[in-house]
Amino acid sequence: MPDGLRPRYLTVHLHNVLCGYLCEAGRTTRFVPGEAFRGDAGRPTLSLSLTIPGNEALTATILANPFHPALYNTHGELPPYFAGLLPEGELRRRLEATRHHPDDRDDFGVLAAAGEDLPGALIVRPADIDALPETVRTVGVTGGADNLEIAVVEGATEGAASVSGVQNKLALSTAHAGKRYTMPTHGRLSDLIAKLPARNDDSQIFNEYVSMQLAQAAGVAVAPCKPQPLATIDVPGLAEALGADLHFLAVDRFDREPGGRVHAEDGCQVLTRMPSRKYAGNDAYVAIVRLLERLSVRGIEDVRQFFMRQAVNTLIGNSDAHLKNFSFLYRNGTMPELSPAYDIVSVAALSGFAAFGQNVAIDGLQRKQTLETYRDFAREAKIAERIALAAVKDAVTLARERWPALLDTLPTPPAMRTVVLERLETLPLARLARR
């Protein structure tokens, strides 16, 4: 054990259930399940990467292996489920700035900074060192050594919340809908995600708003959202820094309800993938659909929603529908359902799109899609072809019927209107409605 190693520990609760402990030392991090959580066949689902409802044998195999990739990571990174809770970009920097000790500005410390308001129903707090079970010390990171000085992790910052992703955003509480939004305080949870505009340019805000309305018109269940004046965010200097007359996109959090938190996880977390691996091939999406077909409380309707959403992404020019943009909700605590859609953007209409290498490549594939593309996907996922193809046809038909008028009545950026209409006229997939 290296000299000067100072282990850190966090408790991991799902609602009021102790799931286990997150342990870090020497840039190695491990999740150690609590004994009661491990032995409870009726446990709530923390992540499908860790526990599989109805398959206790596989769950036991995962939870008993301290080196399982769902539980263990190195190089200062958290295990995949926990890594997926972290923000990126400006929000990450804001959370780092709340940490007083430099050691707590890494992934482990940033998670603790937002530990009271994380995505889903997870709550992470500094562990009571005196109450640590011996198994946590030995199986965690100390290697059984009992002479190590354990570091005290700084707890959550008041008002701090984590929202995963790269886009500049804030997690806010609604003080007066449409008039005032604040940082969460005094134990109040955030209930809204504020997507912030670029400096002096809110065109992407309206692109996303219109995209979400178009998706809804084509039959996709979406998270409610609405552009709001930036000046309604009660954060000193924010409107002045970005542009006083601009708007942000206020998106209702589907993992928050009047009664409190609803647990959720995104596709990367479900599939034990680090956030950096959010772009994936067909195999990953096949796995998502098969999980929905097998486990979702909404059954085949969630499968239909998946296919409708993918068809809409193609028609609208959204080449950024990666795994982190598909989430599972656990309203009953155990079994998943597909969350409402979010982060739908006409990427093809954004300024500078031609330089977005990966998105341009994905867009090229979307432009070649036909009904056979979805038929092949359904076969690979072992989904009845008639269900998948009916969902795609329904979405395409509704899009062609409704989108042209909506593009005129909604606050559509001119470039977006041109791009979407062109796709409706020229894409092979769009021709389905004319057959």
From TrEMBL:
Keywords: Kinase, Transferase
Domain of life, per lineage: Bacteria
GO molecular function: protein serine/threonine kinase activity
Ion transport found in the keyword field: no
Gene3D superfamilies in UniProt: 1.10.1070.20
Domain HipA N-terminal subdomain: 10-124
Keyword hit for Kinase: yes
Residue ranges constituting the HipA-like C-terminal domain according to the UniProt record: 162-403
Cellular component, GO annotation: cytosol
Similarity field: Belongs to the HipA Ser/Thr kinase family.
PANTHER family per record: SERINE/THREONINE-PROTEIN KINASE TOXIN HIPA, SERINE_THREONINE-PROTEIN KINASE TOXIN HIPA
Protein name, as recorded: HipA domain-containing protein
The organism of origin for this protein: Cupriavidus campinensis
